[in-house]
Amino acid sequence: MSTPGHDAPATHQRPPHLDLPQRWLLAFVCLGAGIAPLAARWISEAGARLAYGVLIAAAYLAVALIAKRRVLFGGQFCELAFAFCVLAVVQVLNNSIPGFVGTLILHDVPTAGNPLASTVSGTVVIQLLETLLAVVPVVVLTKLSGADLGSIYARRGVIGGWLVFAVVFFVLFYAFMVSVALRPESPAQQLLPTHGAVPLERLLALSPALWLVSLSNGFEEEFLFRGLFLQKYNAFFGARVSNVLQATVFAVAHAGISYTPSALLFIALVVFPLGLATGYLMRASRGVLVPGMLHGALDMAIYLGFLTAAS
User: Fold this and answer.
1) Could you tell me the pTM of the whole model?
2) Do 187 and 301 form a contact (C-beta atoms < 8 A)?
3) Between the chain's N and C termini, which has fewer beta carbons within 10 Å?
4) Can you give the pLDDT of all 311 residues of the chain as single tens digits?
């Protein structure tokens, strides 16, 4: 039985023994493997973007099968390679299906102020779709691989002080966002503009959609970056290095964002520390609930800007 605040082992196998140079090499390989599927977004042509994503996913699957056949590192390298394959599959789905649904089915195209859709309802639909396209493959493919869902933190975790902390933080951050939206002169507006002051009645009307899309994205990214990789990295690197690795890939995933005029500052001061904090919380609470709520709370700062740009 695992002790509170610590993960149960993903497998019953002993961690592989790697010397320091081997660990450094594997760490850089993991960084590259995590970043490669994300690079598809920089390919402008849809067909080439899809082909690139499928090729990356197939390559990771091939590596996983080879590692399984050769029983590399007691099978733990196979689990790690398969996790990268799942990440690549999710990127293929999210780089193709939401855009198709938004444009051709909903007829609700993104705008300069809202990269999801031009309306509030469309924004909610596309965000929920993106979350389903991430969480469902992570859960289903994990089960099909024979791994326990606890290996991706798909469990309630510790219910107690951590959950109270997450709920209180969510409420307080929402109250802070309300104050920012009502004060266009606030310094926070310079980092995450909400297109000027938002009338209180409109802010209240947008709040249900804001809570839904923010929590949806929070849980999506927790499953995709922390859930998929924390325990698998831990088998090779230990908790601290594992946390830094996943937080680095998480930060790179936000490169090129356009919803803030200070993207580099935002990534360095908000995104990377958020990755570290939620990685710690996922291990401490032994589940996705607490970090998902904390992440969703902070995402309200982004999604309020999207929703105020919607009609």
Assistant:
1) 0.90
2) no
3) N
4) 333 445 644 444 445 677 888 889 999 999 999 999 999 988 989 899 999 999 999 999 999 999 888 866 667 889 999 999 999 999 999 999 999 999 999 999 998 889 999 999 999 999 999 999 999 999 999 999 999 999 999 988 888 899 999 999 999 999 988 887 777 676 666 555 556 677 888 889 999 999 999 999 999 999 999 999 999 999 899 899 999 999 999 999 988 776 776 778 888 888 999 999 999 999 999 999 999 999 999 999 889 889 988 87
* Amino acid, res. 204: L
Q: Where are the domains of the chain?
A: 20-308
C-alpha 247/C-alpha 251 separation (Å) is 6
The residue type at 215: L
| Chain position carrying tokens 């399984």 | 68
Longest dimension (CA), the chain: 62
What phi, psi does 136 have (nearest 5°)? -60, -50
- Mark 187-209 as b/e (b = at least 16 C-beta within 10 Å): eebebbbbbebbeeeebeebbeb
Give just the sign of the alpha carbon dihedral 26, 136, 109, 306. Answer: negative
The answer to whether 291 touches 223, Cβ cutoff 8 Å, is no
